[in-house]
Design goal:
The longest helix has 14 residues. The protein contains five helices and eleven strands; from the N terminus they run αβββαββαββαβαβββ. Helix 1 packs across helix 2. The protein is an alpha+beta fold and about 220 residues long. The chain starts with a helix and ends in a 7-residue tail after the last strand.
Amino acid sequence: MSTFHATAVAAAIAGRLPFGHPVVSNPTTDPGAEGTALAFTFTGATGALIAVQVLDPAQLQDGSAKAALVDRLHPVFEAAVAVLGAGALGDGHEVDAAEVFTAAGTEVFDVVGIDGTLVARTAVRIDDEDAGGRTSSPQRLSRIAGVEMELVVEIGRTRMPVRDVLSLEPGRVVELDRAAGSPADIKLNGRLIGYGTVVVADGDFAVRVERILDGAESV
C-alpha cells in the first residue's frame, strides 16, 4: 500500500471539498467511525477504494443543498483519483463507515479546519499492483507531483497542564523533550519521513535533510 498515494488522494479530497473555509487532511490514529460514508472504487493501473464521511453536509457550500450527497461529492472524487493516473471511477454508494474505515490496508485521515475542528474523514485503500502484478513505478508517482503537501520540521515537544499554559508569559523558557543538537523530525502531512538539521539559508530558517526513513514511500 502506497502511503504517498493515499496521502495525495486525501489531500486532493480536502482541497476540493466545498466548505466555506480552508481545510486540510491529517493522518489519524483513530480509524474508528460511526454511521455511514460515501465510497467510490477506482479501477486502473493503480486501483483504490475511497470513502468520505462529511460530519455535517449542511456546511458544504456548493449551491446544491437539495441534490443527493453522492452527486455533490462526485467531482471531489474525480479530482482525487486524478493523482492515480488513467482509470475509471465507479458509481458512489453508501457504506457502513466502521466497516470500511477499519478494513485491513486502509489509511484514515481527519479533515480539519484551520482551528482544528473536525469536519470530515477520509478512508483510502490503495492497490499498488496492476493486473500484471507490477508495482507502481516512478513514472506513476510523477502523476502526483503537483499535489501540495504540508512539510513540517519539529525540533521537539512537551506536555503541560492547563495551569502552566495559562501562566506562560514573555521570557518564560519551556523545555522540550529533545537535547540541544539533536536532529529535528521531518513530517509530511503529519507522518514522520526523516530527520534533519535546522540551518539558516539566506536569512531564513531551513532544514538540511540528514536521513530519510526506510519505508517512507510505502508501508
